[in-house]
Structure formats: structure tokens, C-alpha cells
Amino acid sequence: MVHVAEDGxxxxxxxxxxxxxxxxxTALAVVRxxxxxxxxxxxxxxxxxxxxxxxxEPGPDALRVVRRGTERAPRTLGVGEWVMEWPEGPDSxxxxxxxxxxxxxxxxxxxRWEWTFGPHERRRGAVVFSGEVGAAVAxxxxxxxxxxxxxxALPEEEAFTVGLSRATEIDAQxxxxxxxxxxxxxxxxxxxxxxxxxxxxxxxxxxx
Length: 208
Fold this sequence. Notes:
Residues 37-194 form the DinB-like domain. By secondary structure, the chain is mainly alpha-helical. The chain has one domain (17-206): Up-down Bundle (Four Helix Bundle (Hemerythrin (Met), subunit A)), CATH 1.20.120. The chain is 47% helix and 7% strand. The chain is built from six helices and five strands. The strands form two sheets. A three-stranded antiparallel beta sheet has the order 3-5-4. A two-stranded antiparallel ribbon has the order 1-2. Helix 1 packs antiparallel against helix 4 (133-153) and helix 3 (98-114) packs parallel to helix 4 (133-153).
């Protein structure tokens, strides 16, 4: 990816990413850079997401985001009109829709922000989800943006503070940069799933 820099020269990389962070020799800069670039990639793809792609079920019994009362899973998460269907167990073989993956990332970033930079009151069950593509993507953007703002504002000397987050027992025992790295992995992992599902959905609906 190339763009024209302010001085008129041709520069590599997206102008929406601060490439200078890649030259900063600190642990916090490493995870900030990974978070920022990974979100840029996922965010660009989400900007092209359609309602049909959001809802597309890649296999039988796929986990979805549906209106309350129409779920087919015994457990759900969410407090509003829409709920995300919860898997039967940690090793559930059920495929996931893009809607579910977007909702999952939303509740993950919501809870980590709440119990790191927020008032330490609400858990992921308090998230209001949506099955509409515009609101669903906007909800995820909101949670990632405020998580990034919190991480970006953290002083370098607090990068290895133990217990800065209280979201889980592991978080409370870990140096903070480990938690940032973990959420980066979540974003890369599920962001890649979203991209693949979007590609598969488009390929499956090509008019030949």
C-alpha cells in the first residue's frame, strides 16, 4: 500500500497508521503498534461488510446474533433486543457467523476496558448487541477505540504493572502488557475469521 506523503513523496503504508511507533524500543510501543495496525486492517474490511455477509451461516447450527426469543441455543448473552447465541462449551464445534464474531470481539473489549480503565462495575453480559450491520460495526468500533485510547494514554513506566486490569483472575496476576498482547491476539484471530468468512460468502454468491 502506498500513498503520497505531505512533502509530495511516495510513501509506503497507510497514512491512517502512525508508522513512527515501529521505531520506539519499548514493550508498550510493540503492543500499541500491533494493536493499531491490526485494527486498521480489520476496520477497513468491516467498512465493506454487508447485512447479508453479517448474517451468512457457513454451516449447520452456526452461532448467530438474533432477536430475543428467536434464539436456538440454550444460552445467550446480551441485555437488549438482540442476543448472541452462546456455544454449548469451550470446545464447541459450532461454526460462527460474522455477526457472532463481531459481537464476541465487542464484549471482549467492553469487559476489558470496563475492568481496566472504567468503573469496574459491568460484565460482558451487560453489552447491548445488534443484528444490524451498521450498529454492530459501530458498537465494535466504539469498544476498540476506547480500549486503544486507554492503552495509548498509559505511561511507559506502568506497562508492567501487575493487576492494572481486574477483568479476570489471570489479568489481576499479569503484567499489563501481557493483557494488551492477549487482546491483540483476539483481534487478529477473530478478525482473520471475519475476513475469511466474508471472502467465502462472496465467493459462494458469485453469479456465474
